[in-house]
Amino acid sequence: MATSNTVTMEIYPNLTPSVEIASSPAGTVCPGTDKVFTAVPTNGGAAPAYEWFVDGVSVGTGSTLSGVYTNGQIVSCTMTSTQPCVMPAIVDANPITVSTFTVTPVSISDNGGILTSSSAFGNQWYEQTSGVIVGAIGNTFTPMTDGIYYVVVTDANGCTSTSNVIEYFVESISENVGDVLSVFPNPAKDNLNITFGKAIHDGTLRIENAIGELVLEKTINQDAGSTLNINFKPYAPGSYIITVRDAKTEVRTQIVHEK
């Protein structure tokens, strides 16, 4: 009796393929954030093929898709499995809808030489050439030098919004400070004296700290030669900008407060 050769058969079980989409960073992101979507296969075989879609339009292949996407866009993926004995061979992932935070636009304006942000919080002022202005985080800022200024606002979600720019000229709004007022002592401690070299009628005195916060604003009527005394004791040590203006005059000067 003759005996045949033997044949070894490998039997694959019937498998069901699937694919999921993982996103990084996950969840809601700031507008403009780059997101990476990764296909996570089950029973995809040794070399599954992928096709990516954004709002139903084919945008790429491969196991990942990256880019900047807008709120409400729908990202989906189709996988073709190379695993033997799968049914069906082509499967779709559950789509992901992109979610972005709403960011309020910010703008700045020049209000009589004082730059003002439309946002009350989260401000950081910049000069276009020199960059970040250290400590300038209030919603107003009074420049002491010519430049191109703007503000970047960071909201509670960590998202940023950049304002328009304003080209600022100190010379165009100021006259010789010494002709209008003198401030002493400087540095000041408990009391600050402002002597006026010319009359200021229906005017305004503003004092801002180094981060642009308004610490004092008052209406003034001062004759030439008069002196205004200000109690400086309650204020923190540091640099301050004093601005005096009326219908015909606007000047500013910087002082230092010491304890």
Automatic annotation (TrEMBL):
Query: Which residues belong to any copy of the Secretion system C-terminal sorting domain?
Result: 183-255
Q: A Pfam family name for this chain?
A: Por_Secre_tail
InterPro entries found in the cross-reference section = Secre_tail (IPR026444)
Checking NCBIfam families in the record gives: Por_Secre_tail (TIGR04183)
Query: Under what name is this protein listed?
Result: Secretion system C-terminal sorting domain-containing protein
Q: Which organism is it from?
A: bioreactor metagenome
**Organism lineage string:** unclassified sequences, metagenomes, ecological metagenomes
